[in-house]
Amino acid sequence: MAKPLNVGMIGYGFMGRAHSNAYIKVNHFFDLEHRPVLKAICARSADKAKAFAEQWGYESVETDWRKLIARKDIDAIDICVPNNFHAEIAIAASHAGKMILCEKPLSMNGPEGQKMVEAVEKTKVPNMVWYNYRRVPAVTFAKRLIDEGRLGRIFHYRAKFLQDWTISADLPQGGTALWRLDVAAAGSGVTGDLLAHCIDTALWLNGNVATVNAMTETFIRERKHNLTGKVEKVGIDDACAFLARFANGSLATFESTRYARGHKALYTFEINGEKASIAWDLHDLHRLQYFDHKDEGKLRGWRSIHVTDHGGDHPYMDKWWVPGLQIGYEHSFVHQVADFLEGIAKGKPAMPDFRDALRTQHVCDAVLNSAKTGQWSKVAGD
Amino acid sequence: MAKPLNVGMIGYGFMGRAHSNAYIKVNHFFDLEHRPVLKAICARSADKAKAFAEQWGYESVETDWRKLIARKDIDAIDICVPNNFHAEIAIAASHAGKMILCEKPLSMNGPEGQKMVEAVEKTKVPNMVWYNYRRVPAVTFAKRLIDEGRLGRIFHYRAKFLQDWTISADLPQGGTALWRLDVAAAGSGVTGDLLAHCIDTALWLNGNVATVNAMTETFIRERKHNLTGKVEKVGIDDACAFLARFANGSLATFESTRYARGHKALYTFEINGEKASIAWDLHDLHRLQYFDHKDEGKLRGWRSIHVTDHGGDHPYMDKWWVPGLQIGYEHSFVHQVADFLEGIAKGKPAMPDFRDALRTQHVCDAVLNSAKTGQWSKVAGD
Amino acid sequence: MAKPLNVGMIGYGFMGRAHSNAYIKVNHFFDLEHRPVLKAICARSADKAKAFAEQWGYESVETDWRKLIARKDIDAIDICVPNNFHAEIAIAASHAGKMILCEKPLSMNGPEGQKMVEAVEKTKVPNMVWYNYRRVPAVTFAKRLIDEGRLGRIFHYRAKFLQDWTISADLPQGGTALWRLDVAAAGSGVTGDLLAHCIDTALWLNGNVATVNAMTETFIRERKHNLTGKVEKVGIDDACAFLARFANGSLATFESTRYARGHKALYTFEINGEKASIAWDLHDLHRLQYFDHKDEGKLRGWRSIHVTDHGGDHPYMDKWWVPGLQIGYEHSFVHQVADFLEGIAKGKPAMPDFRDALRTQHVCDAVLNSAKTGQWSKVAGD
Amino acid sequence: MAKPLNVGMIGYGFMGRAHSNAYIKVNHFFDLEHRPVLKAICARSADKAKAFAEQWGYESVETDWRKLIARKDIDAIDICVPNNFHAEIAIAASHAGKMILCEKPLSMNGPEGQKMVEAVEKTKVPNMVWYNYRRVPAVTFAKRLIDEGRLGRIFHYRAKFLQDWTISADLPQGGTALWRLDVAAAGSGVTGDLLAHCIDTALWLNGNVATVNAMTETFIRERKHNLTGKVEKVGIDDACAFLARFANGSLATFESTRYARGHKALYTFEINGEKASIAWDLHDLHRLQYFDHKDEGKLRGWRSIHVTDHGGDHPYMDKWWVPGLQIGYEHSFVHQVADFLEGIAKGKPAMPDFRDALRTQHVCDAVLNSAKTGQWSKVAGD
User: Fold this and answer.
1) Which of A31, C374, D164, D174 is the most exposed place for a label (fewest CB within 10 A)?
2) Residues D72-99 pLDDT 10s
3) Judging by DSSP bridges, how do beta strands C76-79 and C3-10 pair with one another?
C-alpha cells in the first residue's frame, strides 16, 4: 500500500483544479510508492476554499498560507497563486521543510528566482515547477528521439504560442480572473505566461540559449482595471517575438501573442536536424510529426504519429487505454505528479526543479531586456 | 452534499477501468445530486478483485455476482463482462431492483436483448448501455446540429471502424484477454464489437435503418484457442461491410475490420445533407469537420472545429479546461455517468437505455443474416 | 526532330480542352519520337468548331465526323463526344485504319464495348481509353509500390467519388452542357461517369473483381429536359454504392454520388495490405498517404508523401519543375499522351486499351444489374 | 485574332522553361488582345540555345544578348539569367525600347535596382518582375479578402520559406546549375532567393515594412567552387530570420533556410486580423485556410477552402477545369503573362513593375544590413 504524501494547496483556480485532478488520478494508473492525499486547501476566501474542498475532497481548509505551511501534517505545498506570490511562499515553505510544487513561471524575474533556488538548495526540500508540457507523451517522445541522436546536428528551432482571447478592447485587466493581464501580478504578459512554456521545452530539447533579440507590443494600451475600477495603462506585453541563437549553433524564432484570431492555445514547435525533423502542436497534442531522411528516398514524407501505442514505446501511454484512443491536456499533470513521486522514491528529482526552471527566467529576462533596448541580449548563465 | 449511489461492478478489465475512472471524476467536474460510491468489485478471481479494489478504492470485493446482486448496500450494477453474460446478470439484477449500467453491445442477439428489455421494463429499474461515443463532445455537437435542422434532408451516411490488431496469424483466440475473438463469448466479431458503435451513433443521428445488405469475411480461418490449447476454427467475422437504406431515404455504407493496416481505432462517420455536411474521426476526437452551403460561395470550405469552447456552446466542454485544450477518450464515460445521474435526479433516463440499444441489436442481426443469405435483409422493428 | 502524328478530334467540350492542352504540351516536357499535330477539330456546329480551332490552333475544321475519319491526313481520332456515340465512331475509325483515343467510359455497356474491342483487334489500330487518373503521379506511384510487393496480401480496397453539383432540383437534364444527366446520352449516372474511374484504377491496382452487390438511388426523380423542354423522368443513378469481392480475396466498398454536399471531385481510394497501406485523394492529388508496418514500432505513422521528387523516383515528376512544386489535374492527360506516343514508338500499347477498359464496363454492368435485382452479381470475364 | 507580341528570352534554365510554357498556354485559356510569339532564345552556348529552341518552338537563336536587344522584330525581353546580369541587360533593353519581363529578385541590391527603375521610367517601356506567387489563385484570393476589409486591423504577419537541398557539405557552389550558392552571381543566399518572394507577397498584402531586425547564418562555411575547382568560402546566407514592424502597426516574423530537413519548397504565410485570419502554404497551393470571427460562435473553425471554384469567385479559376480539380505551380506564370498582356492592352501595368519590386530590394538590403550590424534597420522609402 502506497505511503500517503499530504498535500496542501494554495490557490483554487484553473491550476488548482488541474493539479487536484492529477493527485486523485495518479495512483489509479501508475504504480507508485507514494499516494498524494488532499489534506488542505488554502484561499483567502473561506467560502471559496470550502466549496473547493467539498468538490474535490480536501480534508481541511485554511485562509492563511503561513498557517498552512506551519502545519505538521502537511508534506508538500502546491503553489497555484499569481506569480507575484511565488517567491515569498516558496521560500517560507522551504524553510518549513516542505516539498514544493510551484506553478510556472518560477518567479517574476531571474533575481527573484535565484533566491528561490538558493532557499530550496539550502533547505534541500524536493522542489519542482509545473511546466507540464514536457509530459505530454508526444513531447516526451520528441525528447527521447533527440536523445537517441536521431535528429543529428540541429539547425533550426521554432516555437509559437498563439491565442486570441484579449482582442476585445472591452476586456478589463486585473483581479482574480484576469490577473494575467495585470503586470503587477503577472510580471509580464505573454512572455512569462506563454513563451515561458515554449522556452522551457526548448531548453529541455535543444540546450541553452546564448543570445536573443526581441520585440514586444501592447496593442490595447489602456484597459479598465478590476481592482481600481479605473481605466489604466496596460503594463504587459500583448505580443512578443524573438530571434535566438542556441549554444549548439542552431537558430531559432519564438513568438507569442493573444491577438492571433482563430487560435486558442496553439503552442507549436518544430525542430530541423541534419538527419530528421519533428513538429508538434498542442491543438492535436496526441500526434507527433516526424520526417526521417533515412527513409528510402521515394517514400520520404512527414509521418503523423498517433502517440498512443503501448508496450513502453510511447511514453506514459502503457498506463492508459488502448492504441488509437487519445488522452488530453489534463494527463500531462498526472504524468508530472507520477514523476515527482517516483523522484522522491528514488531520490532523483523530477525536472524541472527550481534550478532548472531558473534558466527559463533568465531567457525571459533577456527577452524583455532586448525588447526594451533594441539590442541583442545575452542570456545569464546558470 | 451529493447523495451516495453505491456501485457494484462486475468485471475489472479495460472497461472496468474506464468506468471506475468516470465514477471517481464525475463529481469533481459536474454539479450533480448524486455521487457514485465504489462499493464493491466482483470478479471470479479473488486476488484480481482485491488488487483492482486496492488500486481504484473499491470498498469491498465479491467473487460471485449473484451475491453482489443480493447485497442491500448496492444501488447499481455495472456489467463489464463478456457479452455472453450480459443477459443473465442484467435480468437477475433487474429482478433484484438494481439499476443497471451494461457494457455494449446489449446482448448476443436481438431475441436475448428483447428479454433484457422486458425485464427492466417490468421491474422499472433505471438502465443504460455504455455506447460512450455519443458523449464525445464533437459527436454530441453533431447531434445538436442535426436537431437544429442545419443539415436539411439527409442523402448519405457513411461510417467505418478500422483496426489492425489481429493481422498476425499467431494471435490466439479466447480467454480473458482475447474473448473478443471467441465467438462463444463475443457472439460475433467486428459486427458486435465495432459496428455496434457505428450503428448506435447512426440510429441516434439519422433515425432507423430499414434494410441492409452485408458481406463478412474471416481472413484467418483457424487460431489457437486459449481455453482448449488447440487450433480451432475461428467463428467470428474479421471484417464486415454493409449497404443500408435508412427510413428517411438516405443511403449508407458501413464497414469494419481488424485488418486495416495503419489504423488503430479509426471510427469515422460522415453525413451529407442538402444544406450541410459533417464528419468526425475518433483518432482526433476533439474536432468536428463541418461544411455549410449557406456560407458565402467563394468562402465555402470544410471547417475544422476544435470542439473545446465554453459557455455551453460545445457540449460538456464548459466543465473542463479552457478553449484549445483537448480532452480524450475517457471523458466520454464521465459524461455518460453525469447524464445517467442527472437522469435519475430528473426521472428522465439517459439514453441509450436497453430498449434504445435493442435497435442496434436488430440491425446487427439483420447484417449477419444478410451476410449469410446474400440477400437484402429487413431490420426488425421496435 | 519528332515525327508528326496528326490528330483529328471529335468534340470540343471540357475533355476537348484537356486533350488539346496535353497534345500541345507533351513534347516540351517529354523526349519522344512523335509529335502530335492538331490537324482537325470536328463538331456539328461549324461556328463552335472554328472558334475552338482558333483558340487552340487546329489547322482545319470538320462538321461531319465521317468526313474526318475519311481524311488521309489524319493519323489518330480522339473521341470526346457523349458516350452514346463512342461505339459507332470508334468502329468506323478503326475500319478506316485510324488510331483511336476514346474518352471514358469505353461504351454504353459491355456488349457494345465488346464490339469495339473486336473492331480494333481485327483492324489492329492502336487504341486507348482516357482513364487519366492512372497517370496522376501519386497513383502511378501507388501502382509501383504494389508491384514491388510492398503491401503484401491485400485485405481491403475502398474507393469513393463524391460530388455535390446536382443537389438543386432546378438543374435541368440533357443537351450539350448536361448530357451527363440524360440517360440516353450517358447510359448511366454516377456509375459510368464516376465509378468507372474508381473501377478502372481498382482493376489496375488490385486485379479483377469477382462479384458485386449494389444499390442505386435517384434522389431527384424528375427534371426539365433541355432537349424537349418538358419535365421528364430522370433515368440516371444519382448515387451508387456497392460491395465487391476481388479475385485476390480482398473485400471492397465503392461509392459515388453527386449529392455529397461539400465535395467537388473527391475521388479517394485506400488499400490495406498485410504489410502496408496506401491512400490517395484527388482534391490533393500530389500527395500519397503511406503507412509501412516495417517501420520501427514507435515511429510508425501515416506518411504524407509529396509526390514531386526527381531522379525517376516519383513517376513523371523528373519532367516538370523542382521538388515541392506541385502539378495539377491537367498533367495526367499529358502523361497519358506521352505514354501513348511511347507505346507507338515501342510497339507496346499504353494501357488501358479498349480490351483493358472493357473490364470496367463488365463491372459497371454487374453493378447496375445487381442494383436492379437486389442480388449479388458476377462480373463477366474477359 | 490576337496581335503577336514577339518575345526574346535570355536564359534557358528552370525559369526559361516556366516562362516559355506560360507564353504558349496563355491564349488557350485566356481571351486576350495579344499573343506571345516565341521569337528568339538567347544563351551563350549556341548548342544549348538550339536544343532549347527546338524543344520549345523558338523561331531563332542568339548567343549575344546585345544582338537580341538590337533586333527590330523583338517586342519584349525576358530576363532569366542570374541576378548579377539583371541590371545591365534591363537597362540596355529599356534603352532599346523593349518591354521587359525580369526574373526576381529585381537586382543585386537597392541602389542597382534604383538605376533599373530610373531607366524604365525614363524610357517608359512596360516592365514587370516575375514574383509569380502573387498569381497563385489562393494568394490572389487572399489579397481580395484583405482589400474587402474582411480581416480588419492586422496584428500579425508571419512567413517562412523552408527548403532542405543544401544540407550536404559535398554540394559544390557556383556555375550554371548552382549559381544560387555563389554570392558573386546571386548577391545573397536565401534572402534574395526565397525571402524576396515572402517580402513581395507581404508588401502586396500588408503594406510597407518600416523596420527589421535580422540574423543570418552560413552553416557550411566552405564548399568546392564549380568555376575555380577549389574549396572556397561560402559567401551566401544559408538561413535568415528577421523580425519586422509594418507601417500599419502589425508585427511580423520572417524566416528562410535551406536546412529545414523535410521541406522542399514550403513557402507559408499567415495573417491575423481583428476580424479574420488567413493562411497559405505552397506545398498545397490550391487551398486557403480561413478563419472568420463573424461565424456563429460554436461553429467557428478554420476553413480549408479548395480554391477551384468558377464563376469569377476564385481568381483565374474560371479559365481552367471544373471545381475540385486543382492546378499547379506553373499556372502562376500563365496568370502573370495574362495580366501583363491585359495590362498592355489597357495601358495599366501589371504589378509588380520595377518600381514596385524595388521595395522588396530595400527590405532585403535592410535585412542584410541588420544581420551585419546587429541593430534594427530602417527600410529605405520609395
Assistant:
1) A31
2) 999 999 999 999 999 999 999 999 999 9
3) parallel
